[in-house]
Amino acid sequence: MIGRFRGTYRRLRLGTRLALGMGVLSLVVFGVVGTALSTYMRDYLERQLNDQMKLVQTTQAKDAQAHGTVERQPYYGWYTAVYDVSGDSAVLRRPSDVPKDTVQLTSFAESLARAGATEMSHTTRIEDEGAYRLRACKIGQDVVLVTAAPLEDIENTMDQLVTVQVVAFALALLGLVVFGRAVLRRGLQPLSDMAHTARGITSHDFTDSARLPVRADRGNGGPEVEELRTAFNTMLEHIDDSLAVRTEAEQRLRRFVADASHELRTPLMSVRGYADLFQYAAANEPGERDRHLARLRAEAARMGVLLDDLLLLARLDAAEVEAPLRLEDADLTELVRQAADAFRATHADRPLTVAAGSGPVRLPLDVLRIRQVLDNLLTNAAVHTPAGTEVRVEASVAADAAVVRVTDSGPGIPAADQERVFDRFFRIDKARSRDRGGSGLGLAVARSLVRAHGGAIEVRSAPGATTFTITIPLRRRT
């Protein structure tokens, strides 16, 4: 039974539970207040009655001393008796206005005599009469006056007081629960709104969009609810950003896998085709066989370069578990000059200007990887510009960092493509052949290598001037 009650209580809404809890607490408070008020009122009425009996007995004592008994009854329903006490026994004087059952009055007179007191008060029940307040006092040598006053009026007053309290407290409790529940429901409405918002999130379709279109609206509820609402919206913003990043990463991963598959499919198909040609032409002249073997080696080498770039990018992405760089103290100026000499040897039709300064710029570098970055940028300047386009390489130091700029005076990069030139497998000219345009991994590899050195690479382009800027700190951050 208790377990069922607990289960039912736990299934109630928070506002109802708070209202019931407030009602129980109020009931306890009402009970304590009512008990204290009733006790105080009864004590007050009994004290008033005692004072009244004392005043009446003062007059009755004079009457008893003058006539031997009390001849006049002070109030309706009161009883008065005069006793002669001898030892432990009391004898009632006649005539006396007493009830049929005088046992309680006689016993009380004897108790006063035994106690040796001058006056005593006591509450008792007289048979066929009800509850009475008894007061005894000595009015002479071995003479005791006993007065009995009915408590019916006090009992009726207390019954009426208790009835009024019960009705008033019941109405107050009912109103407190009903209106309290309404107030609590209004105060907890923002929580219900947030729950509705959460249900809206669970029903949202993230297939096409990772953005959460719902937020907890502002409203009444006090500082605590406002604080909870702010925390809730902050959490939604964080989830929103995380979902956006995850969705973008998933889209980039799918695009990367699709591009990698497409890039690998082309050389694989070429290898397969030349292998078939080589098989059918195995008995032909040696010159034809050598040509097919050369094409097979070229496609295999091209596929090997592509796989090496992909492997390098994967290792750079996992830099926290693997360090793909071999750092040593090197002169960046010398590396720039070496890259410029190699560029002049392979692209004699491109005028190249080098501004590397007179002094060395030493910093921790992976010589092979930085040289790979420089060669890639210079090669791009040659591949994506017309013959005769001027190219300039600058090396300098600024703000505790080494800066290398590779600038060409070609047609430039469209503004819409400048933010994507470092994406993997991205080509500005989609129609450019892979033999001339590359796989689209060069700049992605360059950016990853520069970042692995703690630096950054950026591009600024306009018609007639495209500049790639590499910035590497002179001291590697730990």
Automatic annotation (TrEMBL):
Keywords (A to Z) from UniProt: Kinase, Membrane, Phosphoprotein, Transferase, Transmembrane, Transmembrane helix, Two-component regulatory system
TM regions (residue ranges): 20-41, 162-184
CDD domains documented for this protein: HAMP, HATPase, HisKA
Gene3D superfamilies the record matches: 1.10.287.130, 6.10.340.10, Histidine kinase-like ATPase, C-terminal domain
InterPro entries recorded: HAMP_dom, HATPase_C_sf, HATPase_dom, His_kinase_dom, HisK_dim/P_dom, HisK_dim/P_sf, Sig_transdc_His_kin-like_C, TCS_sensor_his_kinase
Subcellular location: Cell membrane
Domain HAMP: 185-244
Domain Histidine kinase residue range list: 259-476
Protein name: histidine kinase
